[in-house]
Design goal:
single chain, 250 residues, 7-stranded parallel β-sheet, two-stranded parallel sheet, 9 strands, binds nicotinamide-adenine-dinucleotide
Length: 250
């Protein structure tokens, strides 16, 4: 069966869970050869290739991208998806916490992109898709550090799109709303009444439900695909209508 990613090779960071895993499966299911770079890449379903790498560690990033390129026979698509969260106002996180989260969410993306760009330049269908977030622009309370990190991801998307457009490398991002992933389930589990918290979270969504990881994966897949060859520097909201309807997550 022919798929839209036949013959293409992809690296997905944070590809062992949630949005990253759904994206890796989406790409592989449509013909791509896919490597997942993750802290814990064990136990991935076939045909995904797991490679251990920490996006905060340049040596493991370089080795991980090189191993992926070697195993996949090249690189056409990079999905910069690895990310961590943080709760708090600007008074709520100390300098160490700021450095820790920005090191994963922002500098991590830069490290992986730096390692991948020389390989992407050799592709006829090169694309980078960054997983950003609605917090980049929505003004979500108690998420100062996480919002700053994703604001940087959105700005980097535009800057990288401009820098690499004449090299034939497209760079876009998705802005998910609240997605039903292990991350969100972990947060819900910390609530006094997780069921009530989930119901309240669902009620705040324009659609009345959380976004599915597969819906974000499909958006990333479109932006990464040769079908989106005329699209770069673009943000695609996958937020249940939150941005389009001018609503706030809380
Ligand atoms: P998740 O926790 O389910 O998965 C994240 C994956 O990233 C994990 O497999 C983890 O091991 C990996 N990872 C974390 N730090 C890493 C590092 N230093 N190096 C390599 N891998 C690392 O999370 P998710 O909900 O799927 O989130 C994925 C991305 O989507 C993140 O960038 C997040 O900010 C973004 N996002 C999530 C939501 C949501 O509601 N879940 C909404 C908007 C944006």
């Amino acid at each position: 069966m022919r798929g839209e990613f036949d013959g293409l090779a992809a690296v997905v960071t944070g590809g062992a869970s949630g949005i990253g895993l759904a994206t890796a499966l989406h790409l592989a299911g449509r013909g791509a050869r896919v490597a997942c770079l993750d802290l814990r890449p064990d136990g991935l379903p076939e045909p995904l290739l797991g490679i251990a790498a920490d996006v905060t560690d340049d040596a493991t990033v370089r080795a991980g991208v090189a191993a992926a390129v070697e195993a996949l026979g090249g690189l056409d698509i990079l999905v910069n998806n690895a990310g961590i969260g943080a709760v708090g106002t600007v008074e709520g996180n100390d300098d160490d916490e700021w450095h820790r989260v920005l090191d994963v969410n922002v500098v991590g993306l830069v490290r992986v992109s730096r390692a991948a760009l020389p390989h992407l330049r050799r592709s006829a269908h090169a694309a980078i898709v960054n997983t950003c977030s609605i917090v980049a622009h929505a003004g979500v309370p108690d998420r100062a550090l996480y919002s700053a990190s994703k604001g940087a991801v959105q700005a980097l998307t535009a800057a990288m799109a401009a820098d690499h457009v004449r090299e034939g490398i497209r760079v876009c991002c998705v802005n998910p709303g609240t997605v039903d992933t292990p991350w969100v389930r972990r947060l819900l589990a910390q609530a006094a009444d997780p069921e009530a918290e989930l119901a309240a979270l669902q009620a705040r969504q324009p659609t009345g439900r959380l976004v599915a990881a597969e819906e974000v994966a499909a958006a990333i897949g479109y932006l990464a695909s040769p079908l989106a060859g005329a699209t770069t520097g673009t943000v695609l909201a996958v937020d249940g209508g939150m941005h389009g309807l001018r609503m706030r997550p809380r």
